[in-house]
Amino acid sequence: MTDSLTLRRPDDWHLHLRDGAMLAGVAPQSAAVAGRALIMPNLVPPVVTGAEAAAYRERIRAALPAGADFTPLMTLYLTEATDAEDVARAAAAGLVAAVKLYPAGATTNSASGVRDFGKVLPVLERMAEIGLPLCVHGEVTDPEIDIFDREAVFLERVLGPLRDRVPGLRVVLEHITTAEGLAFVRAQEGMAGTITTHHLVINRNHILAGGIRPHYYCLPVAKRERHRAALVEAATSGDPRFFSGTDSAPHADDAKEAACGCAGCFTAPVSLPVLAHVFEAADALDRLEGFVAGHGATFYGVAPNPGRVRLSRGAAWTPPAKIETGAGPVTVFDPGFPLHWRAEDITETETS
Ligand SMILES: NC(=O)N[C@@H](CC(=O)O)C(=O)O
Ligand SMILES: [Zn+2]
Ligand SMILES: [Zn+2]
């Protein structure tokens, strides 16, 4: 049995770091392992302009522990008023790596998102010209549509027609939760998809069977077991169109453990050991590096991180149930199985 593994330092191609006291509490958790992350812009108010992204990047840098080697890659939150020229300037300056599309009302802090997709076509066309990817929260918001069908219906109603209108636009279907989402990415040119750590581990029973477990509630909501199995198959297949975006989405416990608890799983502190477990169980440890540190970098056109992280397998360890932050305690994702893998040394330079 393999008991040690050295990987390129991972990237996290979908991460929520929040702001203020929460940012200060959670940024070190990601920076401890990941070399870079694509930072989601759904703050209140959202990060819409290049100037707002530059200011947010400074706040993130200020929240990192001294000496941390972690590069935040910024995104802009697409609104119906987004200025295509501002987006193009921010991309040309190397400030933003992608633009994020939230259908209005689909998820946490998405009220400023898009209602009329026709209104954002000029921005999308400009992005296609300059090769800037669009990251998509792929769920319809129509209250008539069952929550478990919202991703599949979005592909048909929104993403398919959008791709037909702007075929040159590079698109990332974020946090894929269904076999339909995987099939959509595989069937199209110029597309990729992120898969979260938690969607590789939980299905909808984990949320609802034997009691309601708010810390497993996220959006898109976890689906049936057959979808989870399809996600594991895609993530561990070595297909370069699929890569890791944790969607680590911290909320203070009082906002999760409530009559109307909010969506998001905080996975950052355990993501890499959990992924190692999932890949080992699929007999695919040799493909873990591509998933966490290779395919996404290739899609986004950046070199892989120079540093390395060593994972070792040993006695089971128990991660902390919560971390304390200035915004309150935040429960850490519990995979429901003992963790044997641990991230040990992080080296910042090339090793042989
Ligand atoms: N995934 C979630 O359940 N929540 C995310 C938003 C998102 O990525 O949709 C959040 O910001 O909390
Ligand atoms: Zn989302
Ligand atoms: Zn997210």
Describe it:
- The protein is an alpha/beta fold and 352 residues long.
- It has a single domain (4-347), classed as Metal-dependent hydrolases (TIM Barrel, Alpha-Beta Barrel), CATH 3.20.20.
- Helices cover 32% and strands 19% of the residues.
- The chain is built from eleven helices and 13 strands.
- Helix 2 (50-63) links the parallel strand 3 (36-39) and strand 4 (71-77).
- Helix 3 (84-92) runs parallel beside helix 4 (121-130).
- The model has no long low-confidence stretch (mean pLDDT 96).
- Bound molecules: N-carbamoyl-L-aspartate and zinc ion (2 copies).
In short:
This protein is an alpha/beta fold. The protein has one domain (4-347): Alpha-Beta Barrel (TIM Barrel). Helix content is 32%, strand content 19%.
Search tags:
352 residues, alpha/beta, TIM Barrel, 8-stranded parallel β-sheet, 3-stranded antiparallel β-sheet, binds N-carbamoyl-L-aspartate, binds zinc ion, zinc, EC 3.5.2.3, hydrolase
CATH architecture: Alpha-Beta Barrel
Number of domains: 1
Q: Percent range for helical residues?
A: 25-40%
* Percentage of residues in strands: 15-25%
Ligand roster: N-carbamoyl-L-aspartate, zinc ion
Subunit structure: Homodimer.
Cofactor: Zn(2+)
Catalytic activity: (S)-dihydroorotate + H2O = N-carbamoyl-L-aspartate + H(+)
Keywords: Hydrolase, Metal-binding, Pyrimidine biosynthesis, Zinc
